[in-house]
Amino acid sequence: MQRIPLTPREDWQQKVESAGLTFHTLENGDPYWDESAAYQFTAAEIDTLEAAGNTLQEMCLAAAQHIIDQKRYAELDIPAEAIPAIEWAWNNEPPALYGRFDLSWAGAESGHAPKLLEYNADTPTSLLEAAVIQWNWVKEMDHNKELSAFGSLDQFNSIHEKLIAKWKDIDPFLSKPIYFAALDNPEDQLTVTYLRDTAEQAGLPTLQMYMEEIGWNDEQQAFLDPNEDHMFSIFKLYPWGPCFRKSSARTPSTPTRAPAGSSPYGRCFSPTKASCPSSGSSIPTTNSCWKPTSTAPAPWQTTSANLSCPAKARTSPSSATTPPSPPPEAPTTARRSIRPSHPKQSSPKKTAIDATPSSASG
Amino acid sequence: MCSDTLEHKFSMRRSAQVAAPLLAAAALAITTGCRKPEMQRCVDENNRVVADNFCASQPNQQQQQRPDGHGGFIFIPMLYHYYYGGWGGYGLGSTVGGGRLTPSWGRSYINSSGRTLRGGFGRSFSEGGSHFSGHAGGAGE
After folding, report:
1. Among A25, A34, A7, A56, which residue's Cα sits nearest to residue A338?
2. Of A140, A165, A255, A352, which residue has the fewest beta carbons closer than 10 angstroms?
3. ipTM, 2 dp
4. pTM, rounded to two decimals
5. Hey, of B5, B113, B116, B125, which one would you mutate to test binding to chain A, going by the most A CBs within 10 A of its CB?
């Protein structure tokens, strides 16, 4: 892996804004979207990252299974009222869309394997940056003289196509229209707008709203949109934690039953099971489940590591990954079509270039 | 050498085409200030929603002046005032935040009293003390 200093494009702010990234600059004036450097990877390094993503997904699912089997909810600060919803989602596997691994790695020459910093399977952003803005950057930089030595640029990233394909996969399991909701700020709204874009391109009818516009009608025991229509399927960029607190508070303005996605009368992405693997506390749980024995390699160095704790490997790939994992009915394989969250690029000449925002999400 | 290996080594792994017209339109709406109406609610001194008629009967100022008995005035914050935008809902007694005491130029505001109560979701993030936090006050991470 090599860091390549670059000159940001002229009018880069306007360029990323026109593609959808309005929050490109931080409040202190520093760029959030930083084009002053790119990263080159070898094809082997890209393969390492892809394998790490696959392994980590399996480890997180196994860790979640262990948490559920051993009922270690209290250690994760999961409220008691959330447990039935989590177990329902785990057993029924409602559709899941995507998640994001944050990895730390200094490249193959470091001699170390990629390490997981965080798995955000509940409210992952950085999506439009990785799928759209970075792709536009690569297309334009393909003819840039500063990168001419690398030939035609490639990018380890097909998030856009994977999302559209995933929507088509889970279409039969969804009631229409699909609602998209987030808080009223540009980053969250644009992230769900991009997801809505991919759903529309997959042929699904959609509607978008603010989280605070979600209504609960106690008489009908139903979630209602601003037009008083029932809502059955929603992607919410809003964590489960406060949803459960709202449910347990039982104030007149909040639902008194479990939120959609945790029960048969609603579907929600990401489902409540995401609150298990996306909890920060699940990282040490994952480590404890995957302690290598004697001279065995570290678990993230291989896709064939064995569990050393009494948790069975979960065979369904429906939990969220970025890009999305295969459809719920697809069998698990050693190399699923999932990728590490932050896109990397590789060219036929074993080079890869990657521009990354200076403030990586997570 | 098998064909899979050849394809794996030489095929491009980036997206072939990325089109996101809804995203581009939404970004344009944000940058040009085209926004949907925001909430206008009447709140008390603790930013809890009260009935609109509490505010309608008060003068349009942020403070009241009362004689202090020594020739001067003491300034007393208005008990009720309108609150523009931000999080929270219209539910009486619910808490609002993240908005303004004065309307923003170019924005429209609506008050509402529907039979469906809204605002149960969304307000936790700005109430303070939440460990869930996004980059710019959002819920995403």
Report:
1. A56
2. A140
3. 0.71
4. 0.66
5. B116
